[in-house]
Amino acid sequence: MTRIFDDDLNAAFATRAIHAGQRPEPLAGAIMTPVYLTSTYVQEALGVNKGYEYARGKNPTREALERNVAALEGGRHGFAFSSGMGCVDSIMKLFKAGDHIVCGENLYGGVFRLFDKLLGNFGLTFSWVDTRDPQRIEDAMTPATRLVFVETPTNPLMRICDLRAAADIAHVHDALLLVDNTFASPFFQRPFEFGADIIYHSTTKYLNGHSDMIGGIAILNDDDLAARLQFILNAAGAVPGPFDSWLALRGTKTLHLRMPRHDENGRQIAAWLAERLGAEQVIYPGLPSHPQHELAKAQMSGFGGMISVELGSKERANAVLSRCRLFSLAESLGGVESLISHPASMTHASVEPDRRAALGITEGLIRLSCGVEDAGDLLADLEHAFHVV
Ligand SMILES: *Cc1c(COP(=O)(O)O)cnc(C)c1O
Q1: Which domains does the chain show, CATH number per domain?
Q2: Is the pLDDT score of 2 beyond 90?
C-alpha cells in the first residue's frame, strides 16, 4: 500500500513539494523519478518479487506522486486515479446499496451527474444541502448516512463550508467527511487539520497546474480505509498512466511558487472588478464583501485565482467573453494560463436549468481562472473586455 515515507512530514511545505515521496532512482541515481513505462515486473521466482507484480496494482512513478501529494495534505496514504471523476467513482465503492450520502448541493457538476444519473441506480441515496449552513447538514443526517461530501470553495459560486463543523457533525453520526480540495489546493487549505477523513483532488487543476493531463487523487489517514481504497483501485482499475503521473508530479514541485501568484493576481483582479462593477457582482472569498470572508480567512491561508462575476444576462456575459484575448475561453481551471468561462453553458451544462437557477448559476455568470501571467497585462485585457458593459 502506498504510504508516505515517515520523515516526509517533518519538512516545510516548499521542501515537501519538491522532495516528498521521492528517492533517487536505484539503477543510475537519476534525481527525477523516471516514467516507468511498463505493464509488468519480472519476478525472481514464484512468489519472490520486489513488491511490484502488475502495473494496475502499483507503478513507481504513480507511487512517487501519491506519496508527494499525501505529504502535502499532511496525510499518510495517497491513491492516484485516471481522473477526478474516476477518483470519486472509486471512493463511492467504499459504500453499498442502502447507504445514504449527504452532499453539498453545489458539488462539481460532474459529481452531481455521476450520483444522480448513475450511482442512484445502485441503491445509494443522496441528499443535497446548502453546506454554508452546518445545521442543514445536521438536519439531513439519517441512521443510514455514511458520508458527508463537501466542496469548499464551491465551483463556481465560491461558497464556503465550515470544515470543522461538517467534520464534527459527520463524526457524531458515525459518518466520514470527504472534502473536494481542488479549488484551494493543499497550499491554501488542509482539510485534515479540521477533521476530514478523505480528501480528493482533480489533479488536472492546480496540482498539475499546466493544463496538460487529466487525473485525480485521494488522500487518507486511516490505515483500514486506505487498504479498502487500495483494493478498489486495483479491483476497479481507474488508474493513471505513468506519464500523466509524472506530469502531475512535475507540477506539484512548483505548487508553492504558483499558488501565491494565482492568489496575488486573483486579489488584484477581484478588487478591480469590484470597483468597476460593484462588489455585489463579484464573487471572491478574498473580498471583504464576500458573505463568508471571515470563515474563508479562518480556514484558508489564501484565496487563489478563481473569481465569478454576475453580469446580469447572457448577452452581457457573451460580450465580455468574446472580447478577451489573454483570458482564453475554455473549461477547466488552475493552470498557469488565465481562462474565462460561462458555467451555465459550459461546466454546468449537465445540470438541469431549474436546478442551475435554484443554485444561483445564472445565464449572466462568468468564471475567471486567473493564471500567473503579469497582472498588468491581465487587467488590461479585462479593461478592454469589460469596456462594453
Ligand atoms: C475538474 C473538477 C473535478 C473533476 O475532475 P476531472 O479530473 O475533470 O475528472 C472535480 N471537482 C472539481 C472541483 C473540479 O474542478
Answers
A1: 13-252 (3.40.640.10), 255-388 (3.90.1150.10)
A2: no
